[in-house]
Design a protein that fits this description.
By secondary structure, this protein is an alpha+beta fold. The chain folds into 2 domains: 104 residues, Immunoglobulin-like, CATH 2.60.40; 393 residues, Glycosyltransferase, CATH 1.50.10.140. The chain has 16 helices and 23 strands. Helix 3 crosses helix 4, helix 4 runs parallel beside helix 14 and helix 6 runs antiparallel to helix 7. The longest helix has 33 residues. It is elongated. The N terminus is likely disordered. Pfam families: Big_5, Glycoamylase. Keywords: Signal. InterPro entries: Cu-Rt/internalin_Ig-like, Glycoamylase-like_cons_dom, SbsA_Ig.
Length: 557
């Protein structure tokens, strides 16, 4: 009996244990399956995390690694990790998994486009393997850098120089103002034409004929169109305004009180016209008339009146505000040509005293200090923007040119080399600056315009700076030209040649072309190749007389 009862108890106990095991076990498993574990992430871009959510200058295939605290449900990756370009278009990515799906390596299927901004987002749709949520979603900005592949087929150096001249020439030829033939201030200027930029355009036309981009007859007709317009356009004691309406010839105010004569812009215009006068030396009626018209326009500029009673020249005069701006033209800057043309005038000349006291400031424009290993004869510390060594020397040949204050070949070469050496040293650590990517001068910048220089470095490179320095730094300028064309050509090579400027820090590429930046590219490349424009202006008898009067000595006078 006892044995039977014990057996029953054992059986009942076994049944109970089995019951508890069965149902208790099921309950425990149910609880486990309903628990989910959240996850968090950390990441590196190319092996580092810079402590921010912005990464710049990336290669076409950056190495992107996400590390999670829990394994990831791979089925959620396609919607949970998204790469989009700046238009919002999704870019296909390829994930690769490590460490039991706790590490995901992300790679774009195709190379990122150069200098393009992308957003890489890891969002709440990404889940852990147990269904947990991502507790720290991120949006990472990825900015690609240069794509080192050539954007255009390689050609010879001479072919490349010709191509750049020809493409840039289109700004003045194809885009010249239809009524006046003058150069528009910039590619968005409508009817606003520029007097100084049209002087550059006139020289560009001469170079264009020389390079067989256009015929001599067509070039002659365009220059005569410009001269006919200038004969009736507003003048202020013989000087033109900075900006002119290309249809009406009426002055357009450059600033609040600058609505009259601009003597510096007028000098840049006259240098171009005198260069054309020397080029069109034929005996035909058309070329004879053009020469006579240009001589008349030059002789009508009242250079001496712009002294305003002082031993210096004054930049502006307004019929409404008189001399209120009161800006004296003093060196060292881009205005040497103004004093040369004033001294050379047979009708309204200035004496040497005005050059010495007004321009040279009795020697105060001298420098003599050394910057980045190069001694600078004249001007401000580190040389200033490079256009100071370009504008006057589009027609004045600096080679072997000296006066009481400087050797101008030494001056211009030193200025260019200081600018180059500064960009190579790159003390501000701007992205992209190098021996192949250099040149600081006045240009457009993001949101505005400035005169860039080593003392005012905004991270913006202007192609005109290096390319218009070809006569001074031929090796360094050629390296820059090849970089601009072959490596950045998909971004900066456009209908009228190179765009005005670019910044590789937060990649920005101007859409603009400016007459005063495009012109020196054509002209100075031509002077580097043939000295054409130098030879023409320096052959003018007025220039020979005026420069000798100011004390200049040159084998080219």
């Amino acid at each position: 009996m006892a044995k039977c009862n014990i057996s029953k108890l054992v059986t009942s106990f076994n049944v109970l244990v089995a019951f508890l095991f069965l149902f208790g076990g099921c309950k425990k498993n149910d609880q486990t399956s309903s628990l989910s574990t959240d996850t968090s992430l950390s990441f590196t871009i190319n092996g580092t995390n810079n402590g921010s959510l912005k990464y710049t200058n990336l290669s076409g295939k950056p190495v992107i690694k996400f590390t999670f605290t829990e394994a990831i449900n791979t089925a959620t990756v396609n919607n949970g990790i998204l790469l989009k370009d700046q238009t919002g278009t999704t870019v296909t990515i390829t994930p690769a998994y490590e460490d039991g799906n706790k590490i995901i390596n992300i790679s774009p299927q195709n190379n990122l486009a150069s200098f393009t901004t992308y957003t890489l987002s890891v969002n709440e749709q990404l889940k852990s393997a147990s269904g947990g949520r991502l507790i720290n979603p991120v949006n990472i900005t990825l900015m690609s850098g240069i794509d080192e592949t050539d954007k255009f087929p390689r050609i010879s150096d001479e072919e490349l120089l010709t191509l750049v001249q020809k493409q840039t020439f289109k700004y003045f030829w194809d885009f010249g103002h239809p009524a006046s033939g003058m150069a528009r201030e910039r590619n968005t200027s409508g009817n606003t034409v520029t007097s100084g930029g049209s002087g550059f355009g006139t020289m560009a036309i001469v170079a264009g004929i020389h390079r067989n981009f256009i015929s001599r007859a067509d070039g002659l007709a365009r220059v005569q169109q410009m001269v006919n317009f200038l004969k009736t356009a507003d003048r202020f004691h013989g000087a033109y305004s900075h900006w002119i309406n290309g249809n009406t010839g009426k002055a357009i105010a450059f600033s609040a009180k600058d609505n009259g004569g601009d003597l510096v812009e007028t000098s840049l215009l006259m240098a171009g016209l005198l260069t054309a006068r020397q080029y069109f030396d034929g005996a035909t009626t058309a070329e004879t008339n053009l020469r006579n018209d240009i001589t008349t326009l030059y002789n009508q500029v009242e250079w001496s009146w712009y002294r305003n009673g002082a031993n210096s020249l004054t930049w502006h005069w307004s019929p409404d505000f008189n001399w209120d701006i009161n800006l004296k033209i003093q060196g060292w800057n881009e205005c040497l040509i103004t004093y040369v043309l004033a001294a050379s005038s047979p009708t309204y000349t200035i004496p040497k005293l005005v050059y010495d006291e007004g321009w040279a400031r009795n020697g105060a424009m001298k420098n003599g200090n050394t910057y980045y290993g190069v001694q600078l004869p004249l001007g401000s510390a580190n040389g200033g923007p490079l256009f100071l060594s370009h504008y006057s020397f589009l027609g004045i040949n600096p080679n072997g040119l000296t006066d009481a204050y400087a050797n101008y070949e030494t001056q211009n070469k030193a200025h260019a080399m200081i600018n180059y050496n500064y960009c190579v040293a790159n003390p501000a650590k701007h992205n992209g600056y190098s021996a192949d990517c250099w040149g600081l001068t006045a240009s457009d910048i993001p949101g505005g315009y400035t005169a860039s220089s080593p003392n005012n470095d905004r991270g913006v490179i202007a192609p005109t700076a290096a390319l218009a320095s070809f006569p001074y730094t031929p090796t360094q300028s050629m390296a820059a030209l090849k970089f601009f064309y072959y490596k950045l050509g998909d971004k900066i090579w456009k209908e009228y040649g190179f765009v005005d400027a670019f910044n590789l820090n937060d990649p920005w590429f101007a859409s603009s072309h400016l007459a005063i930046d495009q012109g020196p590219i054509i002209i100075m490349i031509e002077n580097h190749r043939s000295q054409l424009l130098w030879n023409l202006l320096m052959s003018a008898p007025e220039i020979k007389t005026g420069m000798a009067k100011l004390g200049f000595s040159s084998p080219n006078l």
